[in-house]
């Protein structure tokens, strides 16, 4: 049966047990009062249900351990037994759920599996006596799997969920849970979830600790000044488990530290599973407020949502904050991520700071004549406005492996130019022996006076995005080491060291042809130590707009690289200074070796160059003429061989390749002669003679032809071959030095082609004339090497297609041969100079027409001559494309009308083999003249036309032959020839060969 007690007092030096189901009631008094050296145990008994402890009235505590009674104090023990549930409730002013009185030297244990619920004005008071030496302290331990819930409800005045001082300690073992909830205390405030303070007399502070794997939850709800964890003076909070702090009132810090500056007094570091968190939502409510002393947070997420708040506010030269693997987030207007104030120090590793409210700064360093420092490794700092601000005094920022992003990644201004920080004022709460609070007001956070600002910023292995701004009168010293700065807006710094990092200007906003669309970086002094500056430039004529580096009144030293990206500039010939990219003003100077160009390629003269349209630009120190010593840096597109007043263009390395492209296509689809295509088709057979030479002197050595001898002769009529299946292969090697080439060059070309066809008789006239038609398929490859002062290159082109032929041959030796073909091409273009592909798999199309006519004229002894003329038209085009440099390449008018005038000397023979089959041979030599009637081919490169035309008049010599057997069933044929331009013999030439095989059907 459960017991009921009223105003229960446990006398000194005694023991007492409360069992489950028992009730203790305090009427206008403490419910359970435990005097010195006693032992009280709350345990499970035979009756189910919780132990209930209720009290009412002012100072009516739930449980109070005191020093009442006689004898020395050896300690009081209060144990909440394993598995027991206890409900403690008080309903009076200044009443505590559990009050471990000064000098009671109480050892309070919440055993494993116990659950304790406390609802009181102040959940738990842990104090110590000033009289004893050393002081008699109280300690509280939550064993694994124990749960303590404290609900401090509304009362006027100052109240806490837990108050600790005088060396008293509270410890959470792994697996234990402590929850502290503080209700709305009205408008007076000064309420704390947990107060870790010191005794006003002894100076001894409370000690709050937790092991990894424990859970501490602090939740405060007040109109104002209701802090979560308040650690001051000699108090110490060392929390290694998961800690979750939430505050909702104005002027309420999640965790507040004002403590001994000689040691770390606040640690919130989740070392086991899970992460800790600190969250505030009121105006001017900091997640962390460190006024004095050293704090560390690890694996902790800090967030604020109120206006004019801060994720962490660290104030004064005796203050520091260390963050590890943590996040700090603010969303309120004017709410900074981390404020480093008046000589304070902050360092962080793998910490992410993000602010999104208007006027909020991610990391803000400020002070009046003080030096404040912040260093971070890993993590990020992000803001919708300023990521890092330095205002007042000297701010030192060190970044290593940090990502920084903001509209301004860095702002350096006087403090008055920034949003004014709130003048935070607060009190220091100490605890008297009787448990009452003694408040001492501190001076508010000082307003930073107007004055000059110096920022010393070093970023290593970091990524910076945004502009940088330095107010006149302030100084910014920035060193970038292995860092990327993406500059999103025009910026200015005092001194900049680029060692070696990349400063990349973002593309222009607006019309790229207007200078106002581009950005500038203005510095007093620039030192390059192998760094790079990435500029956007409209590559065009002189004075084209560009991003710029401006050095104002100082010097440019060291060495850096300028990387230029073309912003749709079509390219043009510069005739003056060129395009300004580095501007020295107000007497600034530059060493002549300060910059080199990050090039698309290196010219034949060894100069780095970038490509704009059809032109290449090189970097020059100084202008031309009177501006040669102006210390500026320019991009120019005139060739080094240019003479003053007569600039010659410096073309990009793809131009020679592009301009020869149509010539390659036309060569690959060129049409052969009829003889080259199918061999000899026209045979003249000797008639049977009346007599032949013999050895009979009686007949004067001239005998009548016998029937057997007559079988070896023909009938004297011409034989014209018609029906056949044939195939042939031909090859060409040529060297060409064009008579016309916009970008001077020569080229070597190797071609091989395979052609196969079927010919059939369409008409057979009575007089022996024949009309033969045919169809064919062809495939070929051309490999071309281009040599030019503007850069060597190459092309590889595959072509395939089909064609048709129509040939008239009559018995007199006259013929007319017509050809037509269609071809499709695929080409790869490569620049040797730039060591890159210009374009892969570029498609093309062409067609060719040819007509040839000639006539065999018989001489004697089976010799004939064949005068002939041929006219061939060719037209090609390729698909427009944008090359690797951004230039637009398109095909212009690319056609050819080539005339050939030739004559061949032919020797025919025919005979019967041992099987009685006819065999024939045809040998010939041929001489040709070639003439090109049309204008040179044209290719447009970003609107600039490039012409190529080979010499018009060529000559050629060749030899060839055909051999038939098996009564003309089979035939092989071949030709070798050499051609050369006649203007400069041997400068341009081609060596040609073809061989074929034909089968009659």
UniProtKB/TrEMBL annotation:
One of its GO terms (cellular component) is outer membrane. PROSITE patterns: AUTOTRANSPORTER (PS51208). InterPro entries: AC_1, Autotransporte_beta, Autotransporte_beta_dom_sf, Autotransporter_adhesion, Autotransporter_pectin_lyase_C, OM_autotransptr_brl_dom, Pectin_lyase_fold/virulence. Pfam families: AC_1, Autotransporter. Residues 718-1001 form the Autotransporter domain. It comes from the Bacteria. NCBIfam families: autotrans_barl. This is Autotransporter outer membrane beta-barrel domain-containing protein. It comes from Rhizobium lusitanum.
């Amino acid at each position: 049966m459960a017991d009921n007690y009223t105003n229960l007092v446990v006398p000194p030096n005694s023991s007492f047990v409360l069992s489950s189901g028992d009730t203790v009631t305090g009427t206008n008094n403490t419910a359970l009062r435990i005097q010195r050296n006693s032992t009280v145990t709350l345990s499970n008994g035979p009756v189910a249900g919780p132990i209930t402890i209720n009290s009412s009235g002012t100072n009516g505590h739930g449980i109070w351990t005191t020093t009442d009674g006689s004898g020395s104090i050896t300690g009081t023990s209060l144990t909440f037994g394993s598995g027991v549930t206890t409900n403690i409730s008080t309903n009076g002013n200044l009443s505590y759920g559990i009050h471990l009185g000064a000098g009671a030297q109480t050892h309070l244990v919440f055993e494993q599996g116990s659950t304790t619920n406390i609802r009181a004005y102040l959940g738990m008071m842990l104090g110590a006596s000033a009289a004893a030496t050393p002081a008699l302290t109280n300690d509280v331990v939550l064993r694994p799997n124990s749960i303590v819930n404290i609900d401090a409800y509304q009362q006027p005045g100052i109240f806490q969920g837990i108050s600790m001082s005088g060396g008293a300690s509270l410890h959470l073992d792994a697996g234990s849970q402590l929850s502290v909830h503080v209700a709305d205390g009205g408008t007076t405030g000064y309420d704390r979830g947990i107060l870790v303070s010191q005794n006003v007399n002894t100076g001894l502070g409370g000690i709050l600790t937790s092991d990894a794997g424990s859970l501490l939850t602090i939740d405060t709800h007040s109109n104002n000044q209701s802090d979560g964890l308040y650690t001051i003076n000699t108090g110490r909070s060392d929390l290694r488990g998961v800690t979750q702090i939430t505050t909702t009132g104005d002027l309420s810090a999640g965790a507040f530290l004002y403590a001994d500056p000689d040691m770390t007094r606040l640690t919130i570091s989740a070392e086991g599973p899970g992460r800790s968190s600190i969250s505030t939502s009121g105006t001017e409510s900091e997640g962390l407020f460190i006024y004095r002393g050293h704090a560390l947070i690890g694996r902790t997420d800090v967030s604020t949502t109120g206006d004019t708040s801060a994720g962490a506010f660290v104030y004064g030269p005796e203050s520091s904050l260390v963050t590890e693997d943590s996040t700090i987030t603010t969303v309120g207007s004017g709410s900074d991520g981390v404020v480093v104030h008046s000589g304070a120090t902050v360092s962080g590793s793998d910490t992410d700071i993000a602010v999104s409210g208007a006027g909020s700064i991610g990391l803000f360093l400020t002070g009046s004549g003080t030096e404040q420092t912040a260093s971070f490794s890993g993590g990020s700092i992000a803001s919708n406005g300023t990521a890092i601000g330095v205002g007042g005094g000297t701010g030192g920022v060190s970044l290593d492996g940090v990502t920084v992003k903001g509209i301004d990644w860095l702002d350096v201004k006087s403090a008055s130019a920034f949003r004014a920080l709130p003048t935070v004022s607060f009190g220091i709460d100490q605890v008297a022996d009787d448990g009452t609070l003694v408040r001492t007001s501190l001076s508010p956070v000082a307003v930073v006076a107007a004055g000059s600002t110096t920022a010393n910023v070093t970023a290593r292995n970091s990524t910076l995005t945004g502009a940088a701004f330095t107010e006149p009168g302030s100084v910014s010293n920035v060193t970038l080491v292995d860092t990327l700065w993406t500059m999103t807006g025009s910026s200015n710094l005092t001194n900049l060291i680029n060692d070696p990092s990349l400063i990349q200007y973002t593309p222009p906003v607006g019309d790229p042809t207007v200078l106002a669309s581009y950005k500038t970086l203005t510095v007093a002094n620039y030192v390059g130590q192998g760094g790079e500056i990435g500029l956007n430039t409209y590559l065009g004529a002189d004075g084209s707009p560009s991003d710029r580096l401006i050095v104002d009144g100082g010097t440019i030293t060291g060495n850096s690289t300028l990387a230029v990206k073309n912003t749709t500039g079509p390219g043009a010939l510069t005739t003056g200074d060129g395009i300004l990219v580095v501007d020295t003003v107000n007497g600034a100077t530059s060493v002549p070796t300060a910059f080199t160009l990050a090039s698309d390629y290196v010219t034949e003269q060894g100069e780095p160059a970038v490509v704009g349209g059809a032109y290449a630009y090189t970097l020059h120190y100084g202008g031309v003429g009177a501006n040669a010593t102006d210390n500026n840096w320019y991009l120019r597109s005139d060739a080094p061989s240019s003479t003053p007043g007569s600039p010659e263009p410096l073309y990009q390395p793809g131009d020679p390749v592009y301009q020869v492209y149509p010539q390659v296509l036309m060569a690959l689809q060129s049409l052969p002669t009829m003889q080259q295509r199918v061999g000899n088709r026209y045979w003249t057979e000797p008639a049977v003679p009346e007599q032949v030479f013999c050895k009979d002197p009686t007949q004067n050595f001239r005998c009548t032809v016998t029937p057997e001898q007559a079988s070896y002769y023909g009938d004297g009529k011409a034989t014209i071959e018609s029906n056949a299946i044939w195939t042939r292969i031909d090859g060409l090697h040529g060297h060409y030095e064009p008579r016309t080439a916009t970008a001077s060059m020569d080229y070597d070309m190797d071609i091989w082609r395979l052609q196969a066809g079927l010919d059939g008789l369409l008409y057979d006239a009575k007089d022996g004339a024949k009309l033969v038609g045919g169809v064919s398929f062809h495939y070929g490859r051309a490999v071309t090497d281009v040599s030019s002062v503007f850069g060597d290159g190459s092309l590889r082109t595959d072509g395939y297609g089909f064609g048709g032929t129509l040939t008239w041959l009559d018995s007199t030796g006259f013929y007319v041969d017509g050809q037509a073909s269609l071809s499709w091409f695929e080409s790869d273009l490569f620049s040797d100079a730039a060591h890159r592909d210009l374009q892969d798999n570029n498609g093309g199309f062409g067609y060719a027409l040819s007509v040839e006519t000639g006539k065999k004229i018989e001489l004697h002894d089976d010799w004939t001559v064949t005068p002939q003329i041929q006219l061939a038209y060719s037209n090609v085009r390729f698909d427009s494309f944008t090359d690797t440099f951004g230039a637009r390449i398109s095909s212009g008018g690319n056609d050819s009308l080539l005339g050939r005038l030739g004559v061949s000397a032919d020797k025919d023979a025919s005979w019967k083999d041992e099987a009685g089959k006819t065999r024939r041979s045809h040998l010939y030599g041929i001489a040709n003249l070639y003439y090109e009637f049309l204008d040179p081919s044209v290719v447009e490169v970003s609107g600039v036309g490039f012409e190529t035309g080979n010499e018009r008049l060529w000559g050629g010599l060749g030899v060839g032959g055909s051999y038939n057997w098996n009564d003309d069933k089979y035939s092989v044929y071949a030709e070798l020839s050499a051609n050369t331009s006649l203007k400069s013999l041997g400068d341009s030439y081609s060596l040609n060969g073809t061989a074929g095989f034909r089968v009659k059907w």
